[in-house]
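FAQ

Q: What does a record look like?
A: Structure on top, sequence underneath. For example:
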């Protein structure tokens, strides 16, 4: 039996937690899926937020926000969402441990990926063996050795998918952070995990190998960079959510934080700059209130 919620929130950063607080206060069944550690605020400091003088640790603020949301009745699963679909009356979510959720409404508040550095040779070999989408390009490496770089569930799932296609799959993950069940799946498929950081992608006209910081050299033909959780844009576009037409980098929403897909809302950095906690919290508030109201309407229609 799959649990049914009124509001499901993907992302446990400022926008997602604020959305959960307001939705739960409306007394609708609310769940947050995501790790607070994945938020950009977790390892940062906050000193420009109204009512919080001085410098506050982001981790402290997020933990307090999560507790606040839970005190209002919101549930929290510190797991990544790997699949989202619209099925009948519900949004169907599948989590990295295989758990499944149905919800009347959905709020995407995953933030955006911020890469601090590029791997040497990465830029030069994009499209020549370097890819950012296993689902898009995996088939081109059928029968060839490949590597997946990343620390989250997207990288693990990417490696498992490629295992069915490639001759050999390596997972390069200095700080692997996935569920126990996902680790077990990697072990069952004999996917070798390297904890050393990638130093350089080798090759001139195409990928020929990967050099790790500990000196190991992997002979591979393809490299898939899958950092963090399942990309917010990938989850959103799988539902038909429209992106900002100017740069196709952020989710397009209206003043109510609604997307073009009925029942789907978005809030925070995933909606574009400025990347400020105050903006994320404000959008989370709007999304949470409106998602709760719409969930009530959808539940009544379903019951009738």
């Amino acid at each position: 039996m799959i649990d049914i919620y009124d509001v499901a929130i993907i992302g446990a950063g400022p926008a997602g937690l604020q959305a959960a607080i307001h939705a739960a206060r409306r007394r609708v069944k609310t769940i947050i899926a995501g790790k607070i550690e994945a938020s950009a605020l977790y390892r940062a400091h906050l000193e420009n937020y109204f009512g919080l003088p001085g410098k506050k640790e982001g981790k402290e603020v997020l933990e307090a926000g999560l507790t606040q949301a839970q005190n209002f009745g919101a549930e929290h699963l510190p797991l990544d969402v790997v699949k989202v679909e619209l099925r009948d009356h519900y949004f169907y979510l599948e989590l990295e441990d295989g758990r499944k959720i149905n919800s009347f409404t959905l709020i995407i508040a995953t933030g955006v990926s911020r890469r601090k550095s590029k791997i040497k040779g990465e830029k030069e070999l994009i499209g020549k063996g370097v890819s950012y989408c296993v689902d898009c390009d995996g088939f081109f490496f059928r029968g060839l050795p490949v590597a997946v770089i990343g620390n989250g569930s997207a990288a693990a799932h990417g490696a498992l998918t490629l295992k069915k296609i490639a001759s050999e799959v390596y997972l390069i993950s200095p700080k692997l952070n996935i569920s126990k069940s996902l680790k077990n799946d990697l072990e069952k498929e004999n996917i070798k995990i390297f904890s050393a950081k990638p130093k350089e992608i080798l090759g001139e006209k195409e990928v020929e190998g990967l050099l790790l910081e500990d000196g190991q050299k992997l002979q591979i033909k393809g490299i898939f960079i899958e950092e963090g959780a399942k990309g917010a844009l990938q989850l959103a576009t799988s539902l038909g959510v429209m992106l900002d037409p100017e740069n196709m980098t952020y989710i397009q929403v209206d003043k109510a934080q609604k997307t073009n897909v009925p029942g789907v809302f978005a809030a925070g950095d995933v909606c574009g700059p400025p990347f400020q906690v105050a903006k994320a919290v404000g959008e989370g508030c709007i999304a949470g209130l409106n998602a709760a109201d719409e969930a009530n309407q959808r539940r009544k229609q379903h019951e009738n």
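Q: Is there anything notable about this one?
A: The domain at 130-225 is CATH 3.50.50.60 (FAD/NAD(P)-binding domain).
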